Amino acid sequence: DLHSFPTRRSSDLTGRASFALRVHGDSMEPDYFDGDIVLVDADADVNVGDVGIFIVNGEGFIKQRGKDRLISLNNKYKDIRISADDTCVCKGKVIGSL
Known about the structure:
This protein is mostly beta strands.
């Protein structure tokens, strides 16, 4: 027996999301926690200060974009500096979580 529930904000976000990923680790706490599912818009611009999904030298990260680095919100972790020798690809902007 299916029941309908009121539309939640996350439902609007899921419609805009290109894909979803599960967060592994605590480097983005207090905004995103280990096990959270984040919604990602692959077509959105990711500007300095935005949180995005980045592939750096083949390894995936959820981080805040800085000018020359990727920033963890949890100060237990150092920033990931991006140099000319690194390969860094942005896969999309994090637009919310479930």
